[in-house]
Design brief:
164 residues; Ubiquitin-like (UB roll); 4-stranded mixed β-sheet; two-stranded antiparallel sheet
Length: 164
């Protein structure tokens, strides 16, 4: 993976109030760790596929290349989605929220179409039951989204390819 941006790029400092919310200048508000939250959704169906984080370099690479790049908090490094698994994300549209501290990318999945390291299409494959008081026994329900690939075969014996 090329982790180099063709031209060095620094995002401008975020504005305040209306300048931040109504201006056309991209000035992302990175958190104290230098990250911005990113939600990836299917470009056609709108299905939520995953939530990850981007640092300035990942955001710039995503904008420049049209391929999703993220910053792994657990590994402390930049990664291009699908670099290991082949399950790339071609960005079709990118939006930033009103105060520029989160982005949504509409993507076209490559490979088997699985966005999750568990082999499933979406990282959001379990539901939380509503209407009961939360307790230590609260059980999640699977949505029926079966794995599309074997994580152990793709990521190695532990099958752990969690990048976000």
């Amino acid at each position: 993976m090329s982790s180099e941006i063709s031209s060095p790029f620094a995002f401008p400092a975020p504005g305040k109030g209306a300048a931040l919310e109504e201006d056309t200048l991209l000035s992302p508000r990175f958190d104290a760790n230098g990250l911005i939250t990113c939600v990836a959704v299917d470009a056609v169906t709108g299905e939520v596929l995953m939530l990850a984080h981007m640092n300035a370099q990942a955001l710039a690479l995503t904008i420049e290349t049209g391929e999703a790049h993220y910053f792994s908090r657990s590994r402390g490094k930049l990664w291009k989605k699908g670099e290991t698994s082949g399950h790339t994300q071609k960005v079709r549209e990118m939006r930033i929220d009103c105060d520029q501290d989160a982005v949504v990318i509409k993507v076209e999945m490559g490979g088997t179409g699985a966005a999750c390291h568990t082999g499933r299409r979406s990282c959001f494959y379990r539901t939380i039951p509503l209407g009961a008081a939360p307790s230590a026994e609260l059980k999640l329900a699977f949505t029926g989204d079966a794995p599309r690939f074997d994580p152990a075969a793709v990521y190695g014996k532990d099958g752990h390819g969690h990048d976000h």
